[in-house]
Amino acid sequence: MDILPHRLIFIRHGETDWNAEGRLQGQHDIPLNGRGGDQAASAGRDARKYIAREQLTELRYVASPLSRTRQTMEIARGAMGLDPRDYALDDRLMELSFGRWEGLIWPQVQAMDPWAAKAREGDKWLFQPPGGESYAMLADRLRPWLATVACDTLVVSHGGVARVLMAMIGGVSVTDAPMMDIHQGRVLIFQDGARRWL
C-alpha cells in the first residue's frame, strides 16, 4: 500500500437502472436514473460542506469518461456552485471490465459459467472474468494515474475503482477490498493511508 501525499475526495456515480436491477455494468455506458441524479446532487452538497469554500476552486476535478460518471460530476459540481462542465476526463478511471458477463445478473453468471463464478468467489482480487479484468489488472491501470495526482483531487468514478483505491491507498488488504460496499450518493475520503466516509 502507498500513502498518497494529497487528499483524494472520491464519489461513486449515482444509481443507474442496471444498478437497481443488480446487473454487472462494467464498461457499458449506462446513464443515471432519477435516483442517481438525486444521489449525485446529495454527494455534491456533502462535498461542498466538507471542502473549505476557498479550496473549491483549487481542487483538481476528474472523472471516468462514461456517461454515468460525467453526469454525476456535472450534477455534483452544480450542487457545489461550480461550473458543471469544468473538469477533466481520464480513461484510466473507467470501471473494471466484466467482459462477457456485463449486462447479466449474478444468477445468470452462475448458470452460464458455474466454474468461473465459483473461482471468482475464491479470489476476487486475482480472478479475471472471461474477456474482462481482474482487480489486480485494474490496479495496474490505476497506478500510473495515481502518480499524476499532484494536488487535492475530487474524483467521480466507479465501485471497482474505489475498491482498488482502498487497497492501494486506503489501508485495506487485497483480500478485503473487493468485498467492500461502495455507497452511491456518499463521499469517500482517502487521506494519509486511510479512508473514511462522510
Q: How would you describe the overall organization of this protein?
A:
By secondary structure, the protein is an alpha/beta fold. It has a single domain (13-157), classed as Rossmann fold, CATH 3.40.50. 37% of the residues lie in helices and 13% in strands. It contains seven helices and six strands; from the N terminus they run βααβαβαααβαββ. Strands 3-2-4-1-5-6 form a six-stranded mixed β-sheet. A hairpin with a 2-residue loop joins β5 (187-191) and β6. The longest helix has 17 residues, at 34-50. The chain is globular, with a radius of gyration of 16 Å. The model has no long low-confidence stretch (mean pLDDT 96).
Blueprint of the fold:
Elements: E1 8-12, H1 17-21, H2 34-50, E2 60-63, H3 67-79, E3 88-89, H4 106-112, H5 114-122, H6 135-146, E4 153-157, H7 159-169, E5 187-191, E6 194-197
Parallel strand pairs: 1-4, 2-3, 2-4
Antiparallel strand pairs: 1-5, 5-6
Helix pairs in contact: 2-3, 4-5, 6-7
Radius of gyration: 16 Å
Q: Going by CATH, what is the homologous superfamily?
A: Phosphoglycerate mutase-like
Share of helical residues: 25-40%
Low-confidence segments: none
Reading the helices and strands in chain order gives EHHEHEHHHEHEE
Round the mean pLDDT to the nearest integer and report it: 96
Structure characteristics:
Rossmann fold, 13% strand, six-stranded mixed β-sheet
What would a concise description of this structure say?
With 198 residues, this protein is an alpha/beta fold. It has helices at 17-21, 34-50, 67-79, 106-112, 114-122, 135-146, 159-169, and strands at 8-12, 60-63, 88-89, 153-157, 187-191, 194-197. Helix 6 (135-146) packs across helix 7.
